[in-house]
Amino acid sequence: MMKHLTDNMEILAAYIGNTLSDDEKQQVEEHLADCDNCRKFFVLTNDLLREPELPEAEVITEAEAISVWNKIIADIEGKEKNIPTRNGKKDSDESGFQPKKKEGKPPSGYRNFIQWITSSYSELHINFAFAAVRSQPVSRVDYIHLIREVDGLKAEMFVEKAEQEKINIHISVFKGDEPAKNVRLTFEKQGGGRVSRLLKEEREAFDNLSFGAYCLTLKQDSQKKGMLSFEIDENGLYEQ
Amino acid sequence: MTRENEVKLLEECLCHDRCDRLIQQYYKTVSSAVRKTFFVYHISFTQEDAEDLLQDTFFRLFDNDRRLLRQYDPKRGLSLTGWIKMITVQTVIISVRGKKPKIVPIEDHNIPVEIDLDGMIFSKEEVAYMLEKCLKTISYLERLVFGLHFLDELSLSDIASFLHKTENNIYQIKHRSLSRVKECMEKWKKEKKE
Fold it and tell me: Do A117 and B59 touch (CB under 8 A)?
């Protein structure tokens, strides 16, 4: 028997987006025919989706948005530490409570630090095509997703933490919306080690690299387009 | 909002921890959806209730490593705006489960206690019971269109749009469902007469 659509948002989204198979559509319709609550939810959702989007002028200010974001982070952190925060419960001590941020101040010599993000394999598979290129699916994976503009090209890097201080890096390079042609990618590791490949398919994988400092050079038609220098360790990625 | 801008907003939040921009963009959209959901479910609410649900919606989106945001997949055919609206409705429904809807005084209802069907008097409970039985004899699609049109009061063109079918198709299904239900109800009236 099908789950209620109120608890099965993905199926409902796919039905509304008209991307289900005929069998799946029929299952949804059979359920809607007999479940008043789900039918009501379905009608309301469709109704809301038809409403015109609010114009640009209707967004809130950046300061208001940051204030809301900080409150939510405080709630989430409070929940993780079992501290009651709002909704009729005792308020947290806002003056003393500092929400933990994921992106810390980069150490000197680096302009940017990005921490590992943990996600489930299936979520990555849905959201990032990079994650489809794996030999052994694992249930949880730490990753960093990076996009950088390099002289008219867009370099998209998906860095995945593998076992024993190793990383897999998958790279795509785009010109506009299309994969860039005749691009050579060269990874040089500080202290030795160099690997260079021509980008043939939509992405190129560099697997089993160890933690350390790297310099990635992009060349197109033998002309150097740019360089990305970074260091990767247990904590995350530091951009130079 | 274009698909490109949605992807950019999502990536800023999921990969770079810049979720304030997403909040900035969708704050009023979520607020409007919260209010509409309360209204449709006939739940009276205060400004504070609405603000609480607004916060709850964003909380759910960002909780557990932004799990609900990460579940968004554009390949399903829905925009990010649509996904966030769906989550909003779900958040409000979860919160109002168990709450009673506004009570309308009985004098304000326009439902007769007894219903006259061609000279025969039935209680509304009897009619409701028979209607439910008759609905079970028709196909799931006929039952769905019947419910959407007569109970949820959607127009046939809205039903066609929601179910990704042609208006002509929906008209035929509605016509068929109505004649079958009528046939069933007539049969029941005859049996009652005898």
Answer: no
Portions of chain B given CATH number 1.10.10.10: 111-193
CB contact under 8 A, A19 and B77: yes
Domain coverage including residue A167: 112-239
Interface predicted TM-score of the whole assembly (ipTM), two decimals: 0.84
Which residues make beta-bridge pairs with A210?
A: A166
- A221 Cα to chain B: minimum distance (Å): 28
Residue A173 near residue A180, CB atoms below 8 Å? yes
Angle made by CA atoms B73, B159, A30, in degrees to the nearest 5: 70
Same domain for A122 and A31, yes or no, is no
Q: Which residue of A has its CA nearest to B91?
A: A6
pLDDT tens-digit readout, A132-152:
444 444 456 778 888 888 888
Q: Is residue A198 situated within a structural domain?
A: yes
3-state SS, chain B, equals CCHHHHHHHHHHHHHHCCCHHHHHHHHHHHHHHHHHHHHHCCCCCCHHHHHHHHHHHHHHHHHHHHHHHHCCCHHHCCCHHHHHHHHHHHHHHHHHCCCCCCCCCHHHCCCCCEEEECCEEEEHHHHHHHHHHHHCCCCHHHHHHHHHHHHCCCCHHHHHHHCCCCHHHHHHHHHHHHHHHHHHHHHHHHHHHC
Q: Which residues of A touch B17 (CB under 8 A)?
A: 101-103
pTM: 0.58
Whether A119 and B16 lie within 8 Å, measured CB to CB:
no
Taking contacts as CB-CB distances below 8 angstroms, the residues of chain A near B21 are 62, 65
Q: What is the CATH number of domain B111-193?
A: 1.10.10.10
* pLDDT single digits (tens) A10-62: 999 999 999 999 999 999 999 999 998 899 999 999 988 887 766 655 678 87
Residue of A nearest to B25 (CA): A59
Do residues B42 and A176 lie in contact, with contact meaning Cβ atoms separated by under 8 Å? Answer: no
CA distance A79 to chain B (A): 9
CA A185 to chain B, closest CA, distance in angstroms equals 23
Does any domain span residue A104?
no
